[in-house]
Amino acid sequence: MGKLGEMMTKAKQMAKGHPDQADKGVAGAERTVDQRTGGKYDAQTDKAADAARRSYRDGGPAGR
């Protein structure tokens, strides 16, 4: 596994250990993107934020 993969694994472990703080980070990132793009990609940011939350709240995608 490369450095990026290792960083992702650590980030997921931290998020699983502190889901409330991770939720705040995801919401902040989503809000920032929406503000900077004028809400142009709102549907996509909603979908991405939901996927991010599922990755640490529900144990991630099926089979992982």
Description:
There is one protein chain. With 64 residues, this protein is mainly α. The chain has one domain. Helix content is 77%, strand content 0%. The chain is built from 3 helices and no strands. Helix 1 packs across helix 2. The longest helix has 18 residues. The two termini are 16 Å apart.
Compose a concise summary of this entry.
By secondary structure, the protein is mainly alpha-helical.
User: Based on DSSP secondary structure assignment, what is the total number of beta strands?
Assistant: 0
Task: Indicate the mean pLDDT.
Answer: 89
The largest sheet, given as strand count, sense and whether it forms a barrel, is: none
What global shape is seen? globular
In the residues, how many domains can be counted?
Answer: 1
**What is the alpha-carbon Rg in Å?**
13 Å
The first-to-last residue Cα distance is: 16 Å
Supply the helix-strand structural class: mainly alpha
Helix content: over 70%
Region (Disordered): 1-64
Biased composition (Basic and acidic residues): 31-57
Protein name: Antitoxin
